[in-house]
Specification:
The structure is a homodimer. Chain A is built from 14 helices and 9 strands. In chain A, about 50% of the residues lie in helices and about 10% in strands. Chain A has one domain: UDP-N-acetylmuramoyl-L-alanine:D-glutamate ligase. In chain A, strand 4 (about 160-165), helix 7 (about 175-190) and strand 5 form a beta-alpha-beta unit. With about 375 residues, chain A is of the alpha/beta class.
Amino acid sequence: MIVKHGMNYLTVLNSARNHKLAPPLAVLRRQQFLIRVLGVRGENRMQGSKFEADSDNILRAITPVFDPNRHKGQAGKVAVIGGCREYTGAPYFAAISALKIGADLSHVFCTKDAAPVIKSYSPELIVHPVLEESYSVGDRDKDHISRRVVAEVDKWMERFDCLVVGPGLGRDPFLLDCVSEIIKQARQSNVPIIIDGDGLFLVTNNLGLVSGYPLAILTPNVNEYKRLVQKVLNCEVNDQDAHGQLLSLAKQIGGVTILRKGKCDLISDGEIVKSVSNHGSPRRCGGQGDILSGSVAVFLSWARQLILADEGNLIISPTNPTMLGCIAGSALLRKAASLAFEDRKRSTLTTDIIECLGRSLEDICPAC
Amino acid sequence: MIVKHGMNYLTVLNSARNHKLAPPLAVLRRQQFLIRVLGVRGENRMQGSKFEADSDNILRAITPVFDPNRHKGQAGKVAVIGGCREYTGAPYFAAISALKIGADLSHVFCTKDAAPVIKSYSPELIVHPVLEESYSVGDRDKDHISRRVVAEVDKWMERFDCLVVGPGLGRDPFLLDCVSEIIKQARQSNVPIIIDGDGLFLVTNNLGLVSGYPLAILTPNVNEYKRLVQKVLNCEVNDQDAHGQLLSLAKQIGGVTILRKGKCDLISDGEIVKSVSNHGSPRRCGGQGDILSGSVAVFLSWARQLILADEGNLIISPTNPTMLGCIAGSALLRKAASLAFEDRKRSTLTTDIIECLGRSLEDICPAC
C-alpha cells in the first residue's frame, strides 16, 4: 500500500510537497500511519524471529473445550486484590476481563469505600469490602485489623485458581502491609499470583515476597520495569540486550516469570525468553494492563489445570504454565485492542477493548 | 456428524496422530465437542425417555394470555430475600429475571449495605434495606432488631405470590436466624417459597423449616445436593439411581419439591420424577441459578393461579404447581442460555442470558 502508481512513499511525500495536486492531508496521515505500523511489524519480525511465541496455537492448546459434565467453578475462579478510595476502575477491568474470557467466578477484595462503586459497575462480580486504609484505622487497632483483613481473604484462598494483586491497590502503607501478608498466604497455599500496578511498587521494595516462587508473574510497564531493573540488577534498562537482561532479571528473582509490556511484549521465566508482537492498537488509554492481568490469570489457570491433568503429555512449548498464561493473555489483548481500534479509532477506551475479548477469543479459538 | 468419510471419531483421531496430513487442531476440537454433546444428548434421551417433561407445552399451558382487563400485580408479585455486604448480583439476577418473564412487581429484601447497590442495577426493582448482619447489631439489641426485621417483611407477605429465599443471602448467623422466622411467616401465610443458594445452607441445617410444606421448592446445585443427601438420607449421591434417590429425598422432607440442577435437571415432589434435558449452554458462569429461582417463582405463581381458578379442569400433567413451575423455569433458562451462547460464545455472562429471556419466552409461547 505504500507503493502507489510506481512511486514509493517518499516520492509521494515529496510530490505532495512540490505540487499543487498534492494528496489531501488525510491520505498522507493515513500513509504515515501505515508506514509506522508496517515498520514496527517488520522490526519485530526481525527482532522476534527466533523468540516469537506461537501465541495463537498456544492459546488454542490451553483453552479448555466445553464439556457439559462440568459444573460451576471448574472453568476458573479468579480473585483480584485491589480497589481503594481513589481507584475503582482498574480492579473492575481485571475482574470482568477474566469473566469475559471464560472464568466462572471472579472476586474482588477492595476497601469499604471502593466496594459499592465496583459492585455497581457489574452485578457479575463478587466484591468483598474487606481492605482498610490508614485513614480509617487507629494505631492501636492496626494489629487486630490487619489480622482480620488477612483472615477474611485467607478463608477464600483455597478456592481460587489464581490471584491478581495490584490493580487500583493504591500505596497506603497499612493496606500494603496487609497485602504483603495476603501474598504470603497465597504462596503457602500454592495459589499462582500475578503482580501488577501498585502491587509491583510493593514487590519491588520487598522482593522476598515473590522471590523463588515459580507461580508468580510480574507484569511491569516501562517505568515499573525500569525500577525493577535498577533495584535488582543495579543498572539501567539495556534495550540493546533486552532479551538477555530480562532473562537475568527473572533468574535473579528466583525464577519468577516477568512479562515486560511494550511495543512488543517480552516474557521470561529465567530459563527462556519469548516475545509476542502481534498487531495491537496504537491507543495507550489507561486500563489495558488491567485487562492483561485478568486475562493472564485465566490462561495461567487453564494451562496449569491442563498440565496437572496431562501429566507430561503436553505437545506445546514452552511448558511452564506461567509462560503459557502470559503468551496467551498478551496475544488475546492485542487482538481485542486491534479490533476495538478498527471500530472506535481515537476514541477507543478500555471498555471497548473488553467488549472485543469474546470475539477475539472466538476468532482464534472457536468455542464449538 | 462424528462419522466423516467412512471413519469414526477414534479413527480420525488416530489418523491425526499418525499421519502428516492430520486434521488441524480446530477440526479435532470441534469433533471432540460434538462427540461429547451428542453423547450427552443420547444419554439423556435414554435416561429421560419416560421421565422427560413435555416442558414447552407445560410452559405454554401455564403462561397467562394477556387480558386488557387485568391490572398491575395480577401477573405476579415476587419477592427475593437476599443481598448482603458481599453479594448483590445474585438477588438482582433473580428479581430482574422475574420481571423479564412477566411478573408485574419484583421486590428485594436485603441488608442496608446491599440496598443502594442493588437499586443502582435497575430502577425496575423495589428494594427494601431491612436485613441486618451481626457486625452491625449489638448483643443486647438482637431480640428487638430481629422482631423488627421480621415484622418489616411480614407486613408485605400477604401481597406476594412467591418468595425466593437465598440468592446472595450470605451466612451471617444473626441474618440467617431472622430469615428462619421469615420462612415461618411465609408458611403461615401459605406463600410458596423457593430456597436457593445460602438459603439451602440454612434449610439443610434446619429441615423443619420446610419439611412437610408442599409449597416449598429447593433448587440445589451439585454440591448443595450432596450435602442435602448426606444430611437427610445419610448416604452419598447415587447417580446410578438418580431418579429413585431424588424421589426418596423429596418424600423424606415431607413432599417438598426438589429441582436438582445439573447437565439434565431432575425434579421431584416425592410422588413423581420429571427431567428437563433441553439443549442449554456449556458455560457455567455464576448467576444462572439465580435466573432459575426467579423464573421458577413466576411460573409457580402462574401455575398456582391457574389451578386455583380452573378447579380441577386442567388438562396438563403433572398437576402440582411446584412441579410445573420447576419444569417451565428450567426449560426457559435452558433456551435463553442456549440463545445467549450462540451469540456470545465463551464470553457469555449471566446478564447476556437475562437479555435472552424475553425472546426465549416469545419463541415458545408468543404473547399474541
